[in-house]
Amino acid sequence: MQPTKIAARDVNVWYGDAHAIKDVSVDIADNTVTAFIGPSGCGKSTFLRCLNRMNDTIASARVTGDILIDDEDIYDRKVDPVQLRAKVGMVFQKPNPFPKSIYDNVAYGPRIHGLANGKAALDEIVESALRRAALWDEVKDRLTAAGTGLSGGQQQRLCIARAVATSPEILLMDEPCSALDPIATDQVENLIHDLRRNYSVVIVTHSMQQASRVSQKTAYFHLGNMVEYGDTTDIFTRPRDQRTENYITGRIG
Amino acid sequence: MIALGLDTDAIDREAAAALVSRQAPATLRNYVRANPDAIGTIQPFEFLAGGRIDAYLKGDVTLQSAERDRNVSPAQLRLADALREAGTLKQRFNFGFLTDPDASDQRPEAAGLGVAILGSLYMMAIVLVLALPIGVAASVYLEEFAPKNRLTDIVEVNISNLAAVPSIVFGILGLAIFINFMGLPQSAPIVGGLVLTLMTLPTIIISTRASLKSVPPSIRDAALGVGASRMQAVFHHVLPLAAPGILTGTIIGLAQALGETAPLLLIGMVAFVRDHPGAPPEGFFDPATALPVQIFNWTQRSDPAFVERASGAIIVLLVFLLAMNALAIVLRRRFERRW
Ligand SMILES: Nc1ncnc2c1ncn2[C@@H]1O[C@H](COP(=O)(O)OP(=O)(O)OP(=O)(O)O)[C@@H](O)[C@H]1O
Ligand SMILES: [Mg+2]
To answer: Which chain A residues are closer than 8 Å to B227 by Cβ?
Structure first.
């Protein structure tokens, strides 16, 4: 059993009057891949965004409860969300590369955090991030081309590379493979396996197969509630809740 | 003229001398004062033709109309013809129109746009230097950082309202605050520039906010997601993407300011100014006029030759506006390297 990296206690999220997350408590372990599954609109992305305080940017969103990372309350007034987000990287549900070159997309994070001293070191970070995101071979000859000129799947991997480049301790991935073919999906899943050695990874996915392939823990969300959370093998073989069973057997969702 | 072998009997000396601009004696006097040795020698000079002669060469004055005109006689026109035959009287573009200061009612041919162009350029410089940074800073604050509450709502509504305030009101404001209260000089580009800055700010703020709004939120999320601060997200990503729109708004605002007349009348920029303003920054405090005000002024003069001056000035103003729009397009292309 790995030590707890993220501990959420009675987290509630409202968008205005809409109650999007209801009393969610969960312990997310270090060096573990945790999958969030559930039907569309059940609050997976919302909860994920609580973990790096990206909900702060949505004016109507209100978060209550405690979220502790390394035993520190990230919603504490002392915590700088900017520092937090450097530590908790995120891959967004919709690929959102900067309208800059491929190189600059990946180099941006390391640049602002001063992770590389010198061009050579930066080049190295960019290359290794692109390799880990399984994109290097496709773009190595056109690093100065526009990131937004890539295909949807390539953009998704570019965003993964961008998130990996800052070496976060926790990586939040919101459907990182939704636009990828099986080969690229396989490569991203290998990346997730690699990352697990050093990081804690939380992945939102609509693919049961993917959840069972990459994750050790799975949480099932339903209408803002976290219905079930446990070992991935247990969730997929012996779900305790009827709603979970319906979902994974394809009767809803 | 005798030397040219022309028949001078038909016209007396005074009338013959009146063929050239009334500016000529002054020019000659100044030359002699500066070069006393030149007395008794023969020096070539180039003078402007008088306003009526000028109009005759352009076909606006005819021998028939001269019969009824107190300012010119058919004899003078015939002499002008003769001089033209002899090659002494020539038609060419008068560059002095672009560089010389205004001239009095009696010398329309000598009136130029020099002071007005300088005044307008000075004011544009002031507007650009003040309105662009203030406008962009205000928009960035309102759009990206300000909390959304009653106070910012009120500020927002007021900015939109300011854009609709008649420009003459800004002139009264400038007169009251900059001249009467702060004691800045009348007719000075600094005051005009400040008034036009106030007028241009709402335009710049509105267009800047619109272009900031049009930057997709996902770009901000992307920047924040890799741990950029809000400042970094704005300055590294949002502003560069909004730059084309900001530039367009600024240049539209500047173009409006360039053509603005009413507020400048109120702060005394309609005065008759014979001396070019000095070099900036001191020159900002020297009296000057502005292009649109000069046009307005010339259309009020009685001598018909000023109609031509005013038309010329309008063309100059339009050329300036076209040039600014062309610049806007070029700059936008340059910045709009959308990936
Ligand atoms: N910015 C927002 N403002 C208001 N409501 C929102 C916002 N984002 C999400 N919601 C609402 O919150 C609920 C949860 O949305 P969320 O995006 O977390 O779902 P999800 O589980 O990620 O769905 P999907 O699988 O389709 O991505 C939905 O009902 C949605 O309409
Ligand atoms: Mg989602």
So the answer is: 82-83, 85-87, 89, 109, 112-113, 166
> Which one of B148, B220, B229 has the shortest CB-CB distance to A57?
B220
d(CA A215, CA A37): 11
* Cα gap A233→A243, rounded to integer Å: 17
A101 CB under 6 A from ligand 1? no
Which comes out higher in pLDDT, residue B71 or A9? A9
Q: Is the CB of A224 under 6 A from ligand 1?
A: no
CA distance A141 to A149: 14
Min CA distance, B245 vs chain A (Å)? Answer: 16
d(CA B21, CA B25): 8
Distance CA B143, CA B333 (A): 25
What's the pTM value of the predicted model, to 2 decimals? Answer: 0.83
Q: How far is the CA of A9 from the centre of ligand 1 (A)?
A: 20
- C-alpha torsion sign, points B175, B180, B186, B190: negative
Contact B219 A146 (CB under 8 A): no
Q: Is the pLDDT of residue B269 over 50?
A: yes
Question: What's the rounded Cα separation, in Å, for the pair A202 and A172?
Answer: 5
The lowest-confidence range among A92-101, A136-145, B270-279 is B270-279
Atom 25 (ligand 1) nearest CA: A40
Residue nearest to atom 4 of ligand 1 (CA): A15
Distance CA A187, CA B46 (A): 85
Predicted confidence (pLDDT) per residue in B294-315, tens digit: 999 899 888 888 888 899 999 9
Position A253 scores a pLDDT of 47
Interchain proximity B227–A92, CB inside 8 Å = no
Cis peptide before B281 (omega within 30 of 0): yes
Q: To the nearest whole angstrom, how far is the Cα of A98 from the nearest Cα of chain B?
A: 6
Other beta carbons less than 10 A from residue A57's beta carbon: 16
The number of CA neighbours under 13 Å toward the Cβ of A233 is 0
Residue among B216, B219, B225 minimizing CB distance to A54: B225
- pLDDT single digits (tens) B3-43: 555 666 667 777 777 778 877 888 888 888 888 888 888 88
Q: From the CA of A221, give the closest atom in ligand 1.
A: 21
pLDDT band at B335; cut points 50, 70, 90: confident
- Cβ(A147)–Cβ(A153) under 8 Å? no
Question: Are the Cβ atoms of A112 and B241 closer than 8 angstroms?
Answer: no
Ligand 1 within 6 A of CB of A20: yes
Residue of A107, A102, A113, A94 whose CA lies nearest to A135: A102
Mean pLDDT across chain A: 90
The nearest alpha carbon in chain B to A102 belongs to: B339
Residue nearest (by alpha carbon) to ligand 1 atom 26: A40
Q: Please compute Rg for chain A using Cα positions.
A: 18
A6, A215 contact by CB (below 8 A)? no
Regarding beta strands A88-91 and A170-174, do their DSSP bridges make them parallel or antiparallel, or are they unpaired?
Answer: parallel
Residues B55 and B61 sit within 8 Å (Cβ to Cβ): yes
pLDDT digits (tens, 9 = 90+) for B171-226: 999 999 999 999 888 888 999 999 999 999 999 999 999 999 999 999 999 999 99
